[in-house]
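Protein modeling request. Please complete all fields; requests missing the sequence field cannot be processed.
Requester role: graduate student
Desired output: 3D structure, token encoding
Chains: 1
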Amino acid sequence: MTAPSSAQFDSDTERLIAQLRKRCEALERRRTEYEDELARRDAQSEASLRRLLTGLLDVDDALAESLRWSANQDPTVPDRAASALASLTEQVSAAHKLLRHRLLAADVRAMDLVHQRAEPAIARVVGARPTSRYPADLVLEERLPGFYLGQQVLRTAEVVVAVPGSDPDFDPGLDPSRETAREPKQPRQSTTARRQPRRLPRHKRRTRRRS
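Delivered output (211 residues):
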């Protein structure tokens, strides 16, 4: 029995190495395709989650606006209407708190930027209010609240910031961005003079006395 020559051994070795290389390349392609598929599914899931949470933020906005509306209603309404309004406000407030609790469980947190610096990455300035009480670019009001999803920005806030100026009419008990309540209109007084009774001529008065 003759031993295999070194040339044949080298040829078999190269063929095995080539086969192994092809298998490794095929496994690498499959691994890359699998990772790409996982990344695509993760991106789709994240996009779906953001759409869902953004929709819930619209509900949060509606509930908050309802609470602001009820707080600005005329307090001199009849007792029955006031009781119904108070009950409705209580229900809306409870729903708002429940929604915020559910959002927090999903790692969605409100930014609460009032009295903080307005950072362009998380807040869009939509208004300015002259004031000498606060430094410039300090957030005085959130027109639209912003939210975080984990460490990412889910929605940027829309804010009103302070700018240098004077505010002599500032009242801490009032919100300067809202209209002050108007006084109820008083009933108009008639300007028509009271009509005097018509006086009869002298000759007719005499006739009436004789009769």
